[in-house]
Amino acid sequence: MLTRRILITAVTVLATLSVPVTSYAEDGPKGDGGVECGLYDCEVEVDVPGQGGGQAGGSGTDGTGGNGSSDGRDATDTSVCVYKLADPQPPAGSLDWEGHEPGDGAVYEQTCGWEGVGGDTITRMVWLAEPPAQETVDPAVLAQRAVDSMTLLGPDIASPRAAGKYTVGVPTWMWVNQSATTFGPNTASASAGGITVTATAKVSKIVWSMGDGASVTCNGPGTPYTSSEGMAQSPDCGHLYAKTSAGARNSKFPVTATSTWTINWQGGGQAGQLTEVRQTNVQVAVGEVQVVE
Fold first, then answer.
1. Which H/E stretch holds residue 218?
2. How far is it, in rounded angstroms, from Cα 29 to Cα 69?
3. What is the pLDDT of residues 22-41, one digit of tens each?
4. Residue 181 phi/psi, 5° resolution?
5. What predicted TM-score, i.e. pTM, was given to this entire model?
6. Contact 107, 89 (CB under 8 A)
7. Which of 96, 115, 129, 160 has CA atoms 20 to 30 A from the CA of 36?
8. Domains in the chain and their CATH numbers?
9. Which residues of 89-103 are buried (b: 16+ CB within 10 A; e: fewer)?
């Protein structure tokens, strides 16, 4: 069993309150519940199950705590913390001073945003011997975090269709349906350390592997075919099969559409560009016209 001291703060920042706070004798005895009160706050001793009877999560001299974790986070969780000088500073004797005297360092309000645990934040008062160096946040890292929060999918293929039948020598038109998740634009933001980065993603090209050895690069979604076009070729995204798919597996050509997402981001005084790639596959049957004499 471990004995852990938990801080109950009656007043965190006095400037936010205008009512008096009940105080206790600084050197008063502990109550039956193991409560030791200072002038503005209290410490409570509780028994915490542990292994080997060792102390977990001891306080560090910089006010950030030891290697242990009291909130369920593990060693792989990372955070970005910002600090704000407590104004006014806690009175002498407050537990926020962690045993130090006013003028010996200072007490700060520490706010940490955690990754890997739902993006929640924790705010607490900490004593620091020196003014903290604010943690720098790389805007490019935030940009990637924004992209990761998007749902970027492969092309939503409208043509060629798996249920369709295509013919040797007859132009095949390729095009895709457009949405925020399959073509863009798709916009998301990420924030940390007082910096917000906004990223916008859009498909810049689609490379079609037609299954017969040919590859077609289309710089847009393609043009939908209409019957009025007759035997015309697509103006921007098409292919002409020169052989049937009879010799292919399942008698169909494996067609792959690979989209390149280009992401432009800006924030934190910087700007940049990222790239993501997504794929969609479809099986296409290609036959030939039978001439009956």
1. strand 215-218
2. 29
3. 333 333 344 444 444 443 44
4. -90, -20
5. 0.59
6. yes
7. 129
8. 2-128 (no CATH), 139-287 (2.60.40.10)
9. bbeeebbbbbebeee
